[in-house]
Structure formats: structure tokens, C-alpha cells
Amino acid sequence: MQLVFATNNLNKLKEVQAILPPHIKLLSLKDIACTEDIPETQTTIEGNAIQKAEYLQSHYGYDCFADDTGLEVNALDGEPGVYSARYAGPQRNAEDNTNKLLNELQDNPNRAAQFKTVIALHINGQLHTFTGICKGSITTKTYGQGGFGYDPIFKAEGYTKTFAEISLEEKNKIGHRGKAIRQLVNFLNQ
Description:
This protein is of the alpha/beta class. It has helices at 10-19, 45-60, 94-105, 168-174, 176-188; strands at 2-5, 25-27, 64-73, 80-81, 112-123, 126-138, 154-156. Strands 1, 2, 3, 4, 5, 6 and 7 form a 7-stranded mixed β-sheet that branches. Strand 3 (64-73) and strand 4 (80-81) form a beta hairpin. Helix 4 packs across helix 5. It is globular, with a radius of gyration of 16 Å.
């Protein structure tokens, strides 16, 4: 089986490849010569995932899946949410985004947050969605060198280390994207 993953994010690609079984060949946007920016103009995480999968299928004709992920912080009424990648501006800089979030929270004692990933699979002319959520909290400063995005400031419930301090294997077991990908794999294995 061959699927296109609608991402240019090499970190996401690496995470997903680590979970998928060997019989599923994963192609990237680069592999299919897709160089344009795929639109992400919806107001929800689900909407963006669906929009990207439908765009890729209609313009390139491949069975594919797309994801969208957001960090939802309770004290910020769910922000940055769907705007997580561009929270500090269009430059999509992870360090700027992290610093802005820490600044917005400052000394707020309510640090509860969750990562949410929605995967939209377009296969055999049908659309399916899978959602993974990882609840946790935002730290007061960054910890760790691994991961990407908001990983240095997010601790999953029951963990004392941030996503940036744990291994990719451990993150995939407990994390939002890993949960959504396992749902996708279970569906594909039916």
C-alpha cells in the first residue's frame, strides 16, 4: 500500500514513519513533486486536515492523508489552537511561538493544556478522520533539546519531563499524533 502524507515537516514525517507498519509505503509531498503551499484556511483543526487531504487528492490523484495539530491552552480559551504554527506570526518560528505562549501565560497558575491532532484520510474516494488528544500542562520555561514546536514546554499528564526530554518512541506512545496515527493504521489494517 502507498500513501502520500501531506506535509513538508520532516519532524512530522519522521514521527509518522516510526509508527507505520512496513507494508505501508509513505510518500512525502517532495516525492510527488508537490511544491505549492497547500491551503490551510479553515477555522478548525479538523477543517484544515480535511482541506489539505481533499486538495492533495483532487490536484494529484493520490490516496493520501493530512494532519493538523494544535496546542489548546485552557487559560487562553483554547489558543493558540488552529493557529499554533503561526501564533507569533507568519514566519512560523517555533521559538517565537513558545516564547509568546510563555509570555501570555506568565504567572497564571492554570497551566492545563492539550495537544490535538486530526488526521484526514482520503482513500478509495472516501474521507475518514481520526483524532488524537494528549492532555497535559505548560511548564514555566523550556526544558530539553528533542522534539519540535511546543515540545520543550509541554508535559503530558502523569509525566515529569516535557516532550522535548523524552524519546521519540515514548512520545509516539503517549502523544496526540501517535494516537491518531494508530487509529489510522488500525483502520487501514481492517
